[in-house]
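To the wet lab folks,

You asked to see what we're planning to order before we commit. Fair enough. Below is the target structure as tokens, and below that is the sequence we designed to fit it. If anything looks off to you, flag it before the synthesis order goes out.
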């Protein structure tokens, strides 16, 4: 289980990971803190099935992949649990999306059951990315092309256990002023993401 906490009214954000150790007892095994104030960290972290790998999101992170200022561009990192205490180790590179100010990268995230694939939503620029982990190079590589939509595409995001199918929500489609909303299902086929069936309208 992971939990978000607003820190000291600064919106830095924290993400906590708890493990059920016996019956109704939950023990803190991880704590992650945003890199600066207004990082809005921890809103949409995700856990693998065994709870040993986690995505840590900072949708308000203010720097791009090269360390240049980029207000609210966002960042997502992945961590593995050491197996004891509260020690976690970063897995692969940090993911910054476009690195564009206001992108809000990490507005949503999800992870496959085994932790080999992750999907990330970028609320302000209406796109979804999927990455696959390469253990040889210790890096996250884009899987297929970026999936794009309109308005609030990616405000909801879920990945199947095997990482081959994703569900994307858009809360402001069809009749924008009524916020009707839509759902899209994509499957990874022949090296790219293909929409399956018709769009599900609210």
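Sequence we intend to order:
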């Amino acid at each position: 289980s992971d939990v978000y906490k607003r820190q000291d009214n600064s919106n830095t954000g924290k993400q906590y990971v708890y493990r059920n150790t016996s019956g109704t007892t939950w023990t803190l095994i991880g704590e992650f803190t945003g890199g600066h104030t207004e990082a809005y960290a921890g809103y949409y972290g995700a856990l693998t099935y065994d709870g040993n790998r986690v995505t840590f999101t900072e949708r308000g992170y203010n720097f791009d992949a090269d360390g240049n200022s980029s207000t609210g561009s966002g960042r997502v990192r992945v961590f593995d649990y050491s197996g004891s205490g509260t020690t976690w180790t970063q897995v692969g590179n940090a993911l910054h999306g476009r690195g564009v100010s206001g992108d809000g990268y990490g507005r949503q995230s999800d992870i496959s059951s085994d932790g080999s694939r992750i999907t990330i939503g970028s609320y302000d620029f209406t796109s979804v990315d999927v990455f696959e982990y390469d253990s040889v190079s210790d890096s996250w590589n884009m899987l297929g092309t970026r999936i794009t939509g309109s308005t609030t595409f990616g405000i909801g995001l879920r990945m199947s256990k095997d990482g081959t199918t994703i569900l994307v929500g858009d809360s402001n489609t069809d009749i924008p002023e009524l916020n009707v909303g839509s759902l899209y299902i994509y499957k990874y086929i022949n090296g790219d993401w293909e929409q399956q069936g018709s769009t599900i309208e609210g």
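Structural context that might help your review: The radius of gyration is 17 Å. DSSP finds no helices and 17 strands in the chain.

Thanks,
Computational group
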